[in-house]
């Protein structure tokens, strides 16, 4: 399921609900429907920037890589796979963070589920 974030400050941002939930949980917002007011935007930007910095300091663990590699060899799977690509939290959060920055500048709200 997708969530679409709307604001007069920027183009719509669409995100899978599972990915948006982590961001909205950090901001203490409901993932089904909600609003980040212009007054809340500076704090939301601060929280997301801090979480992005934290996530960048902890790269994918070796255990996760071993698990992925092990699953590729199950059921006669060949071993000629593309390199594992991890989509980081910062990559997923950036479009919404950018929208929030623009909303903060322009004094606009960000809404979803409406």
Question: How would you characterize the overall build of this protein?
Answer:
The structure is a single chain. The chain is an alpha+beta fold and 114 residues long. The chain is built from four helices and four strands, in the order ββαβαααβ. Strands 2-1-4-3 form a four-stranded antiparallel beta sheet. β1 and β2 form a beta hairpin. α2 packs antiparallel against α4. It is elongated and about 50 Å long. The model has no long low-confidence stretch (mean pLDDT 86).
Task: Please provide a brief summary of the model.
The chain is an alpha+beta fold and 114 residues long. It contains four helices and four strands, in the order E-E-H-E-H-H-H-E. 48% of the residues lie in helices and 17% in strands.
Features of this protein?
114 residues; alpha+beta; four-stranded antiparallel β-sheet; 4 helices; 48% helix; DUF1840
Number of helices: 4
Structural class: alpha+beta
Give the N-terminus to C-terminus distance in angstroms: 15 Å
Strand content: 15-25%
Counted beta strands: 4
Q: In percent, how helical is the residue content?
A: 40-55%
Tell the overall outline: elongated
Q: Unreliable segments (pLDDT under 50, ≥5 consecutive)? A: none
| H/E topology pattern | EEHEHHHE
How is the main sheet built? 4 strands, antiparallel
Organism: Massilia soli
Protein name: DUF1840 domain-containing protein
Pfam family, one: DUF1840
């Amino acid at each position: 399921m997708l969530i679409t974030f709307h604001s007069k400050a920027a183009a719509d941002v669409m995100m899978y609900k599972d990915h948006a939930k982590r961001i909205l949980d950090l901001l203490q917002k409901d993932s089904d429907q909600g609003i980040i007011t212009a007054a809340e935007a500076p704090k939301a930007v601060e929280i997301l920037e801090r979480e992005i910095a934290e996530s960048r300091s902890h790269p994918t663990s070796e255990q996760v890589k071993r698990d992925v590699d092990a699953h590729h060899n199950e059921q006669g799977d060949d071993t000629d796979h593309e390199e594992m690509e991890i989509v980081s939290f910062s990559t997923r959060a950036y479009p919404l963070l950018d929208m929030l920055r623009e909303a903060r500048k322009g004094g606009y709200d960000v809404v979803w589920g409406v």
